[in-house]
Design a protein that fits this description.
Two copies of one chain form a homodimer. By secondary structure, the first copy, chain A, is of the alpha+beta class. Chain A has helices at 22-26, 44-58, 66-79, 120-125, 151-162, 206-217, 232-235, 266-280; strands at 2-5, 8-10, 29-37, 40-41, 85-92, 107-113, 127-136, 167-172, 177-180, 184-189, 192-194, 222-223, 238-243, 247-254, 257-258. In chain A, strands 7, 8, 9, 10, 11, 12, 13, 14 and 15 form a nine-stranded mixed sheet that branches. In chain A, strands 2-1-6-5-3-4 form a six-stranded antiparallel sheet. The first copy, chain A, starts with a strand and ends with a helix.
């Protein structure tokens, strides 16, 4: 694992961040995770753009040299034989208490590592999901931003594990489908692909956007601007989740019910193959 | 300022926390702030109880010796001449990525300091508030917990400052009054005190509970179990905010409209006096 704090390489075991960091004390931070394939980040520009949007909406400063900082990290990892993995960039407003404080120096943390071990059965056989008890807040001022506020996702993930499921699906506060704990949701129904809009609390995922491109190319119309009812989880012929780290994961069981015949469906497989191709050939 | 991390005193300028702390990367943390008057914490037991409740609901471990840790800190501050201030305790799940991770060692951070400078005019003349653009999520699994997720409060606070107001009032996602950015809301109307219920996303504030006691003693009936409509902000004769750090702050203007005659009202003043008495005589 390679870690930097404000551009300086630090050890995993070291103490490298202030106890007064606002990311730590007040969740005053945003982040982004990009996948690295064969020593190259996939769609790094879009990831940096999303961080820049978050910076504009939150007033958390974006380091001017962020792209070169990240490219340096990726290069350094490659030199150490780490060619495939993920790079997470966290930005916080810096150190200090007080809701209105605007410290002079923001904090930039990068973590570059191999992927977590993802069971291959997830991709061959699919995963089980449950409906999260809590709701995504589509009416939050930070909705659609990748902020560091993941406690609700953590609680939903833990509840899912207790229910022998691998992930959870959130609804928004007005009973529409939103997203997974750290992924976007796609449903195949009536020969179209449906994904909850950002207005329902979904992250504008970069893998989500890539899947929209792929589905369109494959002749599968995509609906991404309509609020979706939870009943669609029951009537869909296929369901899958998307994220940069996990890519495309088929969902074969939802709240104990099988999705269609309980096996990853043909459109999901086609999209998985096309995405694998897309990340290989940049 | 006195800071400890996992029981060890650290310097304000030092790097004392891991760059992989889950509080920092995932908002996987809760906190509490207690006021210290004349070297003694006000209602410390209730604050520790609230942290224990948060620990139970989140699975973030509560240090067994937390009370003695905090008492040691308060004692140490008193020895250095710091008799009045606040003590903030932050608990995170520890270090490591992954939504489902449960590290062996949680992180405990304490910060003890003098109060921030609060303008005396806030108390003599009252403050101005605006309605926050974003909403509190009363349907979150962590609703009612004092988690470190304060970005929405920070954004609302910054917007309030831009609108020449000192604070903002949140509604929940179903258009009911909820709370301030870091305080509970009270309204005086029809000779009763009204405060939004925890079910509308309000924190179960310890100062809020003290004010309920005081109002009842003063013969002012308190309604704390009814969802309140925002129109009540316009029809109230008095409004005030409560928190451990700021105590009781009169609100005299809301979204540009004066509250009644634009001066702190008589019931607010009576409650402020009684609270001052209560914190002096423990």
């Amino acid at each position: 694992m390679l870690i930097t704090v404000n551009g300086k390489v630090v050890e995993e075991s070291s103490h490298a961040v202030s106890a007064l960091d606002r990311g730590l004390l007040l969740g005053d931070g945003v982040f982004d995770t990009v996948r690295i394939y064969s020593g190259k980040a996939f769609r790094l520009g879009l990831h940096i753009q999303r961080l820049a949007d978050a910076s504009r909406r939150t007033g958390i400063e974006l380091p001017r040299d962020l792209e070169s900082l990240l490219l340096t990290e990726i290069q350094r990892a490659a030199e150490q034989g780490l060619h495939d993995g993920f790079l997470r960039t966290t930005l916080t407003r810096g150190s200090g208490l007080g809701l209105g404080a605007q410290p002079h120096v923001p904090t930039v943390i990068t973590v570059l590592d191999r992927l977590p071990v993802l069971p291959s059965a997830w991709y061959s056989d699919g995963i089980r999901v449950v409906t999260a008890e809590g709701r995504r807040n589509e009416m939050s001022q930070s909705s659609g931003l990748k902020t560091t506020a993941y406690l609700d996702s953590i609680l939903a993930f833990r509840a899912a594990a207790q229910a022998h499921a691998e992930d959870a699906i959130f609804q928004d506060t007005h009973d529409h489908l939103s997203e997974g704990t750290a992924s976007n949701l796609f449903l195949i129904a009536d020969e179209a692909a449906w994904t909850p809009p950002v207005e329902c609390g979904a992250l504008p995922g970069i893998t989500r956007a890539a899947v929209v491109e792929i589905a369109t190319t494959l002749g599968v119309p995509v609906v991404s601007d309509r609020a979706l009812l939870p009943i669609l989880l029951e009537s869909s012929s296929e369901i899958f989740l998307t994220s940069s780290v996990r890519e495309i994961v088929p969902v074969v069981q939802c709240d104990g019910r099988a999705v269609a015949d309980g096996k990853p469906g043909p459109i999901t497989r086609e999209i998985m193959n096309a995405y694998a191709e897309m990340t290989r050939c940049r």
